[in-house]
User: What shape does this take?
Amino acid sequence: MLSGCFTYVRTSPELVPVGQTVRLLVTPEGASEATSFSEVDREEPTLEGTLERREGNTIFLRIPVGNHPADGPLTRQLGQVVRVPVGEILTAERRELDQAKTGFLIAGGIGLSTLLILNIIGGTSGIESEEPPDIDFHLGKLFSIPIG
Assistant: This one.
């Protein structure tokens, strides 16, 4: 759900800071290193990951490949660093927090929680103690069924 709080904004590959999450639409040649370990669409290769570093006209992108358990309940993300020539990048988008979506998500969560609590309180306030009904059918030492 929290991924809905983010959006991608088109940018230039040169303006993306190191450590930023990016999504790159590249040529098939630009995705050649990633195809060996990740499923990449051949027609519109899109690489998504974290910008590790730049060297000349090449950027190095860490693409997640799975999770590895770390100390405690947290996990660290494993990734493969691939080399992408800047000339092979068709479009670049950086990930940024969408404040409107985040606000709606928080407001919706608070609203649903409030409705749930009010429903629970309203449902339990009308409960009265009821006496068990008379049982006409008895099983035990005596077997009796009253008729009439």
User: Anything to note?
Assistant: Residues 104 and 110 are 10 Å apart (CA to CA). The beta strands are 6-11, 21-26, 46-55, 58-69, 75-85, 89-97. The first strand starts at residue 6 and ends at 11. The chain is about 20% helix and 35% strand.
